[in-house]
Amino acid sequence: MSRQLLALLLLSLVGGAMAGGVMAGFEQLVTLVSDLIWKTLPASLGLPHALGVILIATLGGTLLGLTIHIWGSPTVNLEHTLRQLTKNGYGDDSALPLVFLQGLISLGFGASLGPEGPLTSLTAGLGTWIGRRRGAQPQVLGLLSFAAVSGVLGSFFRSPYGSALIVLETPHEHSLATNLRLLIPGTLAATAGLTVFSLLQGHFLGHEYVLTETVTVYPYLVVAPLLGLLGGLLALGFRQLRRQVERRLQPLAAYPLGKTILGGVCLGGLIALAPLAQGRGQVDALLDPAAEWTVLGLLGLVLVKLLATALCIETGYKGGVIFPLLFSGATLAVAITKLFPMLPLGASIPCLTVATLTGFMGAPIGPVLMVGSAFPPEVMPLTALASIFSYLVCVQGQNRDAPSTTDS
Questions:
Q1: Please, are residues 167 and 15 in contact by the beta-carbon 8 Å criterion?
Q2: Is CATH 1.10.260.40 the right assignment for the domain spanning 3-201?
Q3: Coil/strand/helix, residue 311
Q4: 118: which of 112, 202, 215, 316 is 20 to 30 A away, CA to CA?
Q5: Of 163, 137, 141, nearest to 152 (Cα)?
Q6: 156 within 8 A of 163, measured Cβ to Cβ
């Protein structure tokens, strides 16, 4: 083994392990802040539940807006981080404390978002910052940043290969040859991130999606493509919903404080209406046998969850959409199974969660390996079919949204 290759693999391990440690610390801090805000504070206020929820969410929007008004609003999401890696060759380390603070406020105060947005921005930037302090060359900075992002996603659903593939498969300008060269260090970084995070937290991120129900695959091979199309349409609908929310909020673009306060009020109202709209989603509550969900109630929850996520993103909250989309897909799966009891949750949930993520990210392979690792291996043919058909919907949606070459 050459010295250069050994150094490459060592850097991947270091970047991934650093990301796993940062993730574990950030996750524990968010849980601590969230418990303080949502459990201790309401009891001390003594207000009616709905009013207390709205006031707390409004307070969160106000605090977030003040930080944006004073220090600005860095773009914090996985797609932006990947674009930065493609454009600059390494992560942005110019606003790490602000990303941390605004991410903590957003998630601690119940934003309907996941942690991957702040975490990928933080760890990619941290990899760059560490590399610069060591006088590293640009290609080393890029590898550390890439390894850090892979390490973050590696802690999701205990699938290092799937996590590395999502980073490489998400549409950007890297060539196929570059992607193949990065696959091995990305997988190594994802493994290191998963190992460190699991050792510190005792579980992997997304452990609540693990299903033990086994199904006979063959009867549902015809249904899987239909579920894939449905998941793709759900992701496409979410993109359209975001555009509509962004358009409605355009008059507030010059008033970031007012926009985040409005976001907090709306978020509080939606959480008061549907408590599962808070945070990244509680799948356990959906699968609780004691919960008496109706089909209309579940469909309404999907709409409220997606609306809350879109509002949070477009009013300045910092977070990711992977987990809210997975939760929405799982909720829709439970509704379909209630409507068609002959379709078991062991088939509907894997297909719709994978298909929804595929439809949003435009990546037909990584989601099958990453999210699919939470489910029994027997359902892999179903999730693969669902992912492919969801991807077809995604491609059609992108083609329809693309401007015509004849337009001026």
A1: no
A2: no
A3: helix
A4: 202
A5: 163
A6: yes
pLDDT band at 310 (very low <50, low <70, confident <90, very high): very high
Is residue 233 packed enough to be buried (19+ CB in 10 Å), middle (13-18) or exposed (0-12)?
Answer: middle
On whether the CB atoms of residues 359 and 236 are closer than 8 A, the answer is yes
The residue-averaged pLDDT of 402-407 equals 39
Mean pLDDT of 362-374: 86
Q: What would the two tokens of residue 212 be? A: 């033990």
pLDDT digits (tens, 9 = 90+) for 95-112: 999 999 999 999 999 999
d(CA 353, CA 380): 13
Distance CA 50, CA 274 (A): 10
Residue 89 has pLDDT above 80, yes or no: no
Least Cα distance to 19 among 174, 169, 148, 119 occurs for 148
Tokens 């996603």 correspond to 153
Q: Number of helices (H) and strands (E) in the chain: give both, helices first.
A: 17, 0
H-state helical runs in 36-137: 41-45, 49-71, 78-88, 96-108, 116-133
Please state which architecture CATH assigns to domain 212-401.
Orthogonal Bundle (1.10)
CA atoms of 322 and 332, how far apart (whole Å): 15
Choose the most confident range, by mean pLDDT, from 15-24, 167-176, 286-295.
Answer: 15-24
- C-alpha to C-alpha distance for 179 and 198, rounded to whole angstroms: 27
Integer Cα distance of 24 and 119 in angstroms: 10
d(CA 93, CA 134): 14
Residue type (1 letter), 53: V
Instruction: Specify the pLDDT at position 399.
Output: 65
Parse the chain into domains and list their residue ranges. 3-201, 212-401
- Which pLDDT belongs to residue 176? 46
Fold agreement (3-201, 212-401): yes
Tell whether the model's pLDDT for residue 212 goes beyond 80: no
User: What is the predicted pLDDT for the residue at 202?
Assistant: 83
175 or 14, greater pLDDT: 14
| Rounded Cα distance, 188 and 185, in Å | 5
Residue 389's Cβ-count burial label (10 Å; 0-12, 13-18, 19+) is: buried
**Which helix (DSSP H) or strand (DSSP E) does residue 378 occupy?**
none
Stated pTM of the model: 0.91
Length of the chain: 408
Residues 324, 307: contact at Cβ < 8 Å?
Answer: no
> Amino acid identity, residue 271?
I
